[in-house]
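so my prof wants the structure for this chain in the tokens format not the other one, which i didnt know existed until like an hour ago. anyway here's the sequence
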Amino acid sequence: MRLDKTSNPAFNDYFWEKDKSSSEKMSVRGIILKSLFFILIIAGIALYVWNLYVSGTDIKWFVTGGMIAAIAISIVISVRSQWAKFLVPLYAIAKGFFLGGISSYAHAKFPNMPFQAIGVTIVTFFVMLVLYQTRIIVVTKKLRSVIITACASIFVIYMVSWILSFFGIKSFLWGTSWLAIIFNVLAAIFASLALLLDFDYIERHKNKAPKDKEWLATWGLLVTLVWLYVEILRLMKKMAIRF
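here's what i got, hopefully its the right format
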């Protein structure tokens, strides 16, 4: 999860206006095309892993390996943003393995739930886009600080919980208690709010930042959307089990 670099395309005339600067500047078109391309890659790999699971193949290592690789790649991109153009494709591949695994597991227990989660993710994206474009929610420095702090805290809690699991310590996060559900709801809310930071980043840097920054922006968009989908899927599973 990236904490301070965000991006997201907005589909309207304002964001689609012609470049007033040189072709070497970051453009929304470039981000959209890259994002769609990598989303297709993620979906393709996820479908491949899904089929492996259906055929009886043990995909545990695909899921674990994909998750670890995605985290490692994200950390490297955060530190060495100039490497984004080389690492974003690897990130997409890693996330494809991870999402393919968790989605196939969810579908096996709750048929069609992954498709429902995808639908909710898409609707959430456009709702947040409308809220940002109409300025119903204005991204101020204070709001940005709150969202970044909350996202960072959630990430740390997840990491600590994951590490503890290696020592046989089961965190409340993975259960279906009300506390676990409330945490999941909060995580989904802040994943949604992170989209506002993405829109704001694009508005402030389009046609100004170097062309290579499109890769960084694309990575940010993928991180946000994947995180939102995962939180929605986990929340739906918990609600289905509990009720």
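also thought this was worth mentioning. Helices lie at 13-16, 28-54, 60-79, 84-109, 113-133, 141-165, 178-205, 213-242.
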